[in-house]
Predict the structure.
Amino acid sequence: MPKAPIFVVQLHDARRLHYDVRLEVGGVLKSWAVPRGPSLDPTVKRLAVPTDDHSIEYAGYEGVIAGSKYGTGAVIVWDAGVYQNQTRDKQRRLVDPATAIDNGHFRLHLQGVKLTGSWAFTRTGRNGDWLMVKVRDDAANPQVDLTTAEPQSVLSGLTIEEMAATQS
């Protein structure tokens, strides 16, 4: 049986604090910067800006990226796990993740430490941006904001502020 593809959500304090949502697709981590982080509320649409692909090895990175260029700053692994592709075409056939992303709509089921349940990524057509939306399922919970309720890393247990302080 093939191994399930991974996902990781890294909290990154670069020019602005944001969440990098990364999904293993075709041997790389397809990536989106989600400024406000994932929401468990299906009525909330989160902006997801595509960023450069990253290597699979980057999924476990935590630390402080030094320098003065864009992308510097503290990084923690806010969540991680595996996902199952749920994207289907009009004939209800499963669409592979790379094709789904090329087509502008990708639905997946996350099995992470913090994030569980189904999510949809949809390209909006405006500047190539996407929306990340929680699908209505048993894991949806509009009353909980995980970004504030659980700010720590799933690997080190550090918050982004604690990670930044390791370089002071």
Q: What stands out?
A: Residues 6-165 form one domain. The chain has three helices and nine strands.
